[in-house]
Amino acid sequence: CRCRTCAGSSASTARYVSRTGASQRGRLLTRGPQFQALLSHAHLYPTIALSSPLLPPSLSTLLPQILPGARSLSLPSSPHLALSTFLPCLSSRLAYLDLSFSAVTDELLRTAVGVDVASGVRELSVKGCRGVRDGRALASLFHHAIRVDLSWSAVRTLPSACPRPCTSPSSHSSSSSSDLDSDDSGFFELDSSAFPADPTPWPHLVHLKLSSCPFLSSQPRYDSHSTAEAPLAAFLTHLPPRLESLDLSHLRLPYVDLVGLDFARPEEGGTVDGTTLELSLVGNDLLTRSAHARLDRTWRARFGKLRQVRVEHDAVLESEGEEDVRRFVEMVAGGSR
Q1: Which of 7, 32, 194, 323 has its CA 20 to 30 A from that of 217?
Q2: What pTM, to 2 d.p., does this model score?
Q3: What is the DSSP track for 259-295?
Q4: More confident residue, 267 or 53
Q5: If you write DSSP's letter for every residue of 37-62 in order, what string do you get?
Q6: What does the pLDDT read at residue 102?
């Protein structure tokens, strides 16, 4: 029935069902075909959050039917089998995706989450996901993300400057007609100068967490067999211009990797985002108090009034001497004085 009374009753029933727990909702599914049809309306479930990966069979059957209507999905600690079943059911309505501490992998994200779905995601959390290793592929897939949490993950690579097609008219346009008239083979040679480097691999990113990524913190700035910069150092030299918070805690970043950071890079329109940047360097035992002071003086002199950088860090040592560091560690650990 489509009358106003039944419609109101259906809406109220859906609100009631959305408040019930997983076990109660599973029992409700057995009440009748009309009730099951009501529960299967995807638009009634804009927010889906599962606190436990253990689901009753009835709810596991319902989820694929309602996931296309989800705008916010939280599947923490979910096993690989459940993710491979649920993720392909998502639609372009999705804006928030939380897969923290789950068994998701790079391959599963690439195959199960389509480009249309990923392009609409604005907040992504793969915190603690040991199967997520390729940060470049992640940034390419979720290109429009605003908030990304990669902390405690196994990410080994990060996006840096990459080629992009030139959108402005170039010298090729003047000779394009003659080339087409003289050669109709369908192939033409691309000039690498027509593809300038894109300095913003995550152009819309505002909040980024890279805390406690073990494979990032263990990378040297330069490999012993190559002059190429490590992924973390290369990424830090091309930070997105709209960043408002950046968590680099527990990454053992030295002073030389931090002092050259450009927090006042202009956007494509030439303007500089003047909001305050919250930078977390908690747990970085490579930075002493004097190093923090030098960073503060350098950034103030470089950025001036363009942008303010507020640094959060824990207690650091007064001296940079290795002997003082050893004694401090022994004191904290309760060793010899």
Answers
A1: 323
A2: 0.71
A3: HT--TT---TTS----SPEEEE-TT-TT--HHHHHHH
A4: 53
A5: HHHT-GGG-SEEE-S-S---HHHHHH
A6: 93
